[in-house]
Specification:
By secondary structure, this protein is mostly helical. It has nine helices and three strands. Helix 1 runs antiparallel to helix 3 and helix 5 runs antiparallel to helix 8. The longest helix has 23 residues. It binds fe (ii) ion. Fe (ii) ion binds next to helix 1. The site of fe (ii) ion has 7 residues, from helix 1. Its cofactor is Fe(3+). Belongs to the iron/manganese superoxide dismutase family.
Length: about 200
């Protein structure tokens, strides 16, 4: 099956004032759509054509001849998750089991948030910061470059924040720290993250 651009799970203006309709129109309709269109062009006739998105991402990683497929397919996966990881009136209370685990592994929710923001801010250039459940069963904060994600770098991705400039430049200009802080404080869909946590455990 070809890659398909999903609709946003909320209205374009639903994440204001933290993420504007203009940002979402560019980010979803232009940037995410370009990954879908370019990915489909590159997949045509390749041995990964018709595979599941996860298999395409994993199967193209590290293969120089499939770098274009990897970049577009991985960004497609990242953005599908990213849209679902946010919601209107997000942030706020973290469901009990996940909050308990965050306190266990980071010391406090505030420490987790500080680590997450720091990972996003210190990712040099384009990329993502993540909350993952690692293979030893511990929560960890990681960061990846460009389109790379935990499917290929390890662990189960529970939460990811896009720190490409296209994600924040309209609303925050160059102030990436303010954007990542607003994301973790006011945009995260913790119910969705908790659901990913319960499935990963
Ligand atoms: Fe993006």
């Amino acid at each position: 099956m070809a890659l398909e651009l999903p609709a946003l799970p909320y209205a374009y203006d639903a994440l204001g004032p933290y993420m504007s309709a203009e940002t979402l129109e560019f980010h979803h309709d232009k940037h995410h759509n370009a990954y879908v269109v370019n990915g489909n062009k590159l997949l045509e006739g390749s041995d990964l054509e018709g595979k599941s998105l996860e298999d395409i991402v994993k199967g193209s990683f590290g293969d120089a001849s499939k770098a274009g497929i990897f970049n577009n397919a991985a960004q497609h996966w990242n953005h599908i998750e990213f849209w679902n990881m946010m919601k209107p009136n997000g942030g706020g209370a973290i469901p009990g089991e996940l909050e308990k685990k965050i306190i266990e592994d980071f010391g406090s929710v505030d420490q987790f948030k500080a680590d997450f923001v720091n990972a996003g801010v210190t990712q040099f250039g384009s990329g993502w910061c993540w909350l993952v459940l690692d293979d030893s069963g511990k929560l960890a904060v990681t960061k990846t470059a460009n389109g790379e994600n935990p499917l290929v770098t390890g662990g189960h991705a529970l939460l990811g924040c896009d720190v490409w400039e296209h994600s924040y430049y309209i609303d925050y200009r160059n102030a990436r720290p303010d954007y990542v802080k607003a994301f973790v404080d006011s945009l995260v869909n913790w119910e969705y993250v908790a659901e990913r946590f319960s499935k990963a455990g």
